[in-house]
Amino acid sequence: MESNSTMAETKKRYPQRRSSTTLKKGDKIAEVEVDWNEADKLRRIGCTCEEMVAVLGVSWSTMERKCKAVHGIPFDEYVKKGNQNFKVSLRRLQARGAQGYTEIIRDEQGNILERKYNPPNITMQIWLGKQFLNQKEKSEIDQNINLPTLPDIIIK
């Protein structure tokens, strides 16, 4: 164990540097900025709150505080609104695929280069029918079948 005089000499020779996270009274904390454009992109693809804070590199509490200040709503509500838009877009794409559509490819001037017809997707139609119209693939089996008994078979 070093003596007190040796420790004092070591501290003089190698003064302790203040790390960037050490704060003194009166120091201001650098304000964390949230990239709201990136946050909106993440909402539009259906990311959860947990996924958003991980990608943005910001804590949940910071997002909660910033979201209330910038948008006037809690963070989870902000994400939920974006997810609802994502769900509507997804439904629109599913309906479009189920109905079939013509894709028009244009050049920079707006001239039509190609028309590509995409036929209706039968699988998507069946799936949407099950989800929204309560359609099922089950077929009813009639349990009341009259089978001949053994004596009836022998007599004939």
Q: Count of helical segments?
A: 7
* End-to-end gap: 111 Å
Q: How confident is the prediction overall: mean pLDDT? A: 79
Low-confidence stretches are 10-20
Number of strands: 2
Helix content: 40-55%
Provide the β-strand percentage band. Answer: 5-15%
What spatial form do the alpha-carbon principal axes imply? elongated
Largest sheet: 2 strands, antiparallel
Q: Give, in order, the helices and strands.
A: HHHHHEEHH
Strand order of the largest sheet: 1-2
Query: In angstroms, what is the radius of gyration?
Result: 34 Å
* Class by SSE composition: mainly alpha
Task: Give a structural overview.
The chain has 156 residues and is mostly helical. The protein has helices spanning 4-13, 36-44, 49-56, 60-71, 75-99, 122-132, 150-155, and strands spanning 101-106, 112-118. Strands 1-2 form a two-stranded antiparallel sheet. Helix 2 (36-44) crosses helix 5 and helix 5 packs across helix 6 (122-132). The N and C termini lie far apart (111 Å).
Summed up:
The chain is mainly alpha-helical and 156 residues long. Helix content is 52%, strand content 8%.
